[in-house]
Amino acid sequence: MSRVQANLLLLLTGAIWGMGFVAQSSAMASLGPWSFTCARFALAALTLLPFALWESRRARHRLAPREFAGFALCGAMLFAGSILQQLGLLSTTVTNSGFLTGLYVVLTPAAALLLVRRRPHWVVWPAAGLALVGLLLASGGRLDAMGGGDALTVACAAGFAFQIVLVGLFAGRSGRPLTLSAVQFAAAAALGLPGMLAIDGLQTAGLIAAWPQVFYGGCISAGLAFTLQTIGQRWTTAPQAAIFLSSEAVFAALFGAIFLGERIAPIGYFGCLLILCAMLAVELVPLRWPLRAKTGETTMETAAR
C-alpha cells in the first residue's frame, strides 16, 4: 500500500469518527459514559474476533507475548482517551470538547519523540499548528469558559496521541492489524466494565433505547474505523496520521449540520480549509523535500514508503 492510499484510509477514518460524534452525543441521553464506552468496545471486539481468528490462521508466525502486551497497551490508551472524553462531555460543551480533543494533532509528534525517539519531518510541526488553528475556527472560533470537563478532555487528547503512536509501532512490527484491533477493543471493554457496574449500574433499558448509537459506536466508529486506522498506520507516520485523523472535526461539523440542524459559522469553513491545507502539506512537502537520515538510521518517512 502506498503512503497516499494509507492517508486516504485515515481520511475515511476521520469521516467515520466525525459521524460518531452525532451518535455519541445522542447516546448520552440514555446511557452513562462508562456504560456507553464499555458497550461499544465490547461490541467492537466481538465484531473483529472472527476476522482476527482468520488472520491468525493465515499468519506464518505466532504472536509473541510481548506483542500481545503491546496490543493491550494500545487498548489501555484507547480506553483512557475514550472514557476521559465521555466524562468531559458531562461538564463541557461540544465546542470545547471537539477542539480540545483535537490537541492530539500537536501532542502526537511529541509522543513519537518521547516513546520511539523518531524525528518527524519538519513540515509536521507547522502543519500541526495550522491544523490546530483550523480546529479552533471549525468549532466556531472561540472556546466557552474553561472548567473541569475541559481538563479531562485535554487529558483525553494525550491518551489518543499515545494510542496513535503505539498503534503505528505495533501494527508495523506485527503485521497483524485485525488482531491488534480485536485485542485493543477487548482490553478497552475490560477496563470499562468495573466502572460500568460500580458507577453507572446495569442500564439494560438504556442500552435498548440507545442500541442504534451503540451499534454505530461499536461496529462502525470503533470496529471499522479503528481497524482502518491500524491498517493505514502500517504505511505512514504517526504525526502524519494525526493530522489526517483531525479531519474528524470537519466531518463532525458537517454531519452535525445535516443530522442535528447545527449551523457552521462562516469562519468555520475557513478552518476546514486550513485543516485541508495541513493534510496536503504533510502529504506533498516530504515528496519535494525528503527528510535526510543520519548514516545508519532509517526515517519514518523512508519506512512508510
Structure description:
With 305 residues, the protein is an all-alpha fold. It has one domain (3-304). Mean pLDDT is 83; it is low at 293-305. The protein is 78% helix and 0% strand.
Short description:
By secondary structure, this protein is mainly α. It has one domain.
Topology:
Blueprint: H1 3-27, H2 33-58, H3 65-88, H4 94-101, H5 104-116, H6 124-138, H7 148-174, H8 177-200, H9 204-209, H10 211-232, H11 238-245, H12 248-259, H13 266-288, H14 300-304
Protein name: MFS transporter
Main location: membrane
Subcellular location: Cell membrane
Percent helix, as a range, is over 70%
Shape: globular
Distance between the termini: 8 Å
Total tally of structural domains: 1
**Biggest β-sheet description:** none
**What is the structural class?**
mainly alpha
Number of helices: 14
Summarize this structure as a short list of keywords or feature phrases.
single chain, 305 residues, mainly alpha, 14 helices, 78% helix, 0% strand, disordered C terminus
